[in-house]
């Protein structure tokens, strides 16, 4: 084997190792792909959608986040409704946080399909320090903080950033 061929193989090997290392670092610390499992976030996210989760961003109210489930070994995908210290109330299907009423436009499609009643039962909660209160957009079919309680901020994997599959539904999440 010629010296030139050896140099070329070595250069390619370095490039491939560098690329694998870069992908590993990005996946561990920056972005990770997740497959949506279930209907709790419909119509925002649907079963088997593939999303990228940003691991290095701050979390705000109404962001869609991925976190370690407190009741299983799965990841859950829900929307942040209450931040640490918030006093939340849902009354007659309207959300109030710290006394201020908030619109929830992501619930509109599910409200239109509702024959009668409310999507969200009345509740009153105060979110403790270091925790979040989360709910799915498909409130009638969501296993969320109403059932398992508050989510520790330490259990948050990151914020949903991009739906990349199916390709015809690709979009940025949490705009």
List the helices and strands and how they pair.
Layout lengths: L2 H27 L1 E5 L14 E5 L9 E5 L6 E8 L4 E5 L2 E4 L2 E3 L5 H5 L10 E4 L4 E5 L9 H4 L2 E2 L3 E10 L5 E2 L3
Antiparallel strand pairs: 1-2, 2-11, 3-4, 3-11, 4-9, 5-6, 5-8, 6-7, 9-10, 11-12
Describe the structure.
With 175 residues, this protein is of the alpha+beta class. It contains three helices and twelve strands; from the N terminus they run αβββββββαββαβββ. Strands 1, 2, 3, 4, 9, 10, 11 and 12 form an eight-stranded antiparallel sheet that branches. Strands 7-6-5-8 form a four-stranded antiparallel sheet, with no helix packed on it. The longest helix is centred in the first third of the chain and has 27 residues, at 3-29. The N and C termini lie far apart (55 Å). The mean pLDDT is 91.
Helix-strand sequence: HEEEEEEEHEEHEEE
Q: Estimate the strand proportion.
A: 25-35%
Given helix and strand content, the structural type is alpha+beta
Spans with pLDDT under 50 lasting ≥5 residues?
none
Tell me the number of strands.
12
The dominant shape is elongated
């Amino acid at each position: 084997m010629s010296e030139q061929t050896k140099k070329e193989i070595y250069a390619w090997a370095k490039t491939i190792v560098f690329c694998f290392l870069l992908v590993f670092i990005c996946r561990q610390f920056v972005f990770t792909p997740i497959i949506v499992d279930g209907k709790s976030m419909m119509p925002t996210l649907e079963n088997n959608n593939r999303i990228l989760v940003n691991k290095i961003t701050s979390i705000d109210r109404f962001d869609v986040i991925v976190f370690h489930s407190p009741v299983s070994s799965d990841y859950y995908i829900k929307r942040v409704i209450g931040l640490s210290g918030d006093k939340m109330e849902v009354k007659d299907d309207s959300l109030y946080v710290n006394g201020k009423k908030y619109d929830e436009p992501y619930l509109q499609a599910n409200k239109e399909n509702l024959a009668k009643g409310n999507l969200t039962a009345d509740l009153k909660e105060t979110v403790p320090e270091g925790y979040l209160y989360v709910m799915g957009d498909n409130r009638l079919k969501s296993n969320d903080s109403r059932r398992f309680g508050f989510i520790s901020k330490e259990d948050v994997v990151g914020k949903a950033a991009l739906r990349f599959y199916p390709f015809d539904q690709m979009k940025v999440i949490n705009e």
